[in-house]
Prior knowledge:
Chain A has helices spanning 11-18, 101-114, 122-130, 178-186, 197-211, 226-230, 235-239, 247-251, 296-315, 326-330, 337-345; strands spanning 3-7, 23-29, 36-40, 66-73, 94-99, 131-136, 162-166, 170-175, 258-265, 268-275. Chain A is of the alpha/beta class. Chain A has 2 domains: 3-65 and 72-211, no CATH class; 226-345, no CATH class. In chain A, β2 and β3 (36-40) form a beta hairpin. Helices cover 32% and strands 14% of the residues of chain B. Chain B contains 11 helices and 8 strands. The longest helix of chain B is centred in the last third of the chain and has 15 residues, at 274-288.
Amino acid sequence: MKVIKIDKKHWAGGIEKSRSAYRLFGPVMVENKNFSDFKELAAGEMPDMTATDTRTSPKSICFPPEEVMMEFSTDETRDDCNLMKVPAKDYSPRAVIGIRPYDAAAYLIVKKNFDTPEYRDPYWCDAYAACTFIGLAVNEPGRLDFSTSTNSGPFDEIGLDVLLVDMGGHYFAKVITEKGAAYLKAAGWEESAGDGAEQQIEALKVKAESMIQTTISFDRIKEKSIMELHGADFWDDAAFACINCGTCTYVCPTCWCFDIQDETRGKSGVRIKAWDSCMYPLFTIHTTGHNPRETKVQRVRQRFMHKLKYYMDKYEDGIMCVGCGRCVRSCPVNIDIRRVCQAMNG
Amino acid sequence: MLAYITKIKEISDRLLQEQKVDLIIGFRKGTIPMMNEPCFAKTASDVKNLVWDSNCGINLANYLTNRKEKIGVIAKGCDSRNIVTHIIENKISREQLVIIGVPCKGMIDRRKVSAAAGCEVTEVLEQPDGIVVKGLGVEKTIKKADVLQDNCAICIHRNPVISDEMVAEPVEEQKGVDRYEDVRRVEAMSPDEKWNYFEELLSPCIRCYACRNACPLCYCPTCFVDESKPQWVGKTLDPIDTRTFHFLRAYHCAGRCTDCGSCVRACPMGIDVRAFTKKLEKDALELFGWEAGMSLNERPTLDTFKPDDPDKFIK
């Protein structure tokens, strides 16, 4: 596999050069806050490659918190009254700089929902096809990173087009796909890293993986029946503290649920796809007023059963979690997926 | 404050043994530094897991709403005022509760501690002379006063206003605190400045409603933002909808908010949600001499009329 060397002196210039062919996305510090988040980089803005983790995940680049799917007019004098039309969309190439390996792995999980043999969500799929993922290996995993337990890891390449490794004065850029090679070329980074680069990367990978302090096990969940887990006696205890705020689902890189809403102002309207959350009663309430998940315990159980049991049974590809630790860090009342997983696996 | 836990466990064990309560609502040790998890204890072994330290900022009154059991609840000053409000608003009855009062010296703000550490915090130890913070290759001792939650730093009701058992003697209340310096600063702004101030304040909001859900006052069976027949508020990040949510929620808390800080603590995006509620709290105090949740014997200021009401329109 080809490895390119990028001297940090050429970093800003390369990023700048690539703008002519790509819209750029990356982590930036949020003004007046002690954290960073992914956003589209404005002219001259650089991705913050020192950001340890972003508060929310980069899933929003292809699955924004809200997205206009269609537009319509309710003006009856018009021929196209009430006809839904897809607005113009910008699916020109996007480069996602500094995405972490676990977040790239999460994209492939979300893809299972939006790109199936029967149904294809054009908004997500077209945006995804436009993306080139320039990942950044995690040299020093945080203490809530349990990505090595979830088919990912601090240097994992799944879902990435390029893996950057911070070597101090330079980056090594491991070229994983053609798309990745094209981006590096557009940025003008073409200096071969030469012999020994792969070994140096491997050494850092081993070191990073050894720094992971927390793991989860879900090997026994597969063997348990859905009804056994559903009826288990730990749910009241696990769910007690939950305030059903939905923060966990909003910061999660793999949560893919959304709502569809029509909004009109005057005689023009839009149909919108907006994030939704299984933590909310409104998520499941029927028009009759009946709600099959009326209580908090039912909703908490749903979230963990979906992530750790239903997904596993349906896709036979591990769990719907990449171990980024965001939900653990952001939960205001310390509901911890590791603790719940342990109870389910027990 | 660290010595309280022995007494909390002793009282909890006794209440459960004597069957005076069905469960105790308190905190157990969290899985990450500076976080404890609200929990219930029904057995002696559950009680062993209870903890008390400066990371018990969640308002436990929030966990009492509409419960049917007899409950022993651990209450700091602010929790106790929200328990009073809950009783007045018929969300729980006084007879169902055994209130285990905890004199409080303030809760620490995990974000301030992380910022002071300058790295990912791996361990925090609370000691009589300060907070010892450990991170990767870093160990610092910081003064608790420097990392208190903003609302705790200006708290003037640290002792529970209502209790059946106390875990310790009352602590000294803070005197001479200027509670509304920040509100006055906003009041002094021009309309444009105010607009920009609130726009900036709300710009990180992701509409997860953690602030609402952490708030013991927000117990409506269906919140107005969740109404779908008709739908009052849009679901997107449209600034109009975001503003509507925050402004209305704040007004629903007028004359009821105890400034417990749960909303700020819960917000994943670090928004100072108290900027809204504090203005209303100040108004309730200045216009009506009202502080929420201080007594079971007085009707809340916004559901009574007094002849000396400062507004003419109502007379």
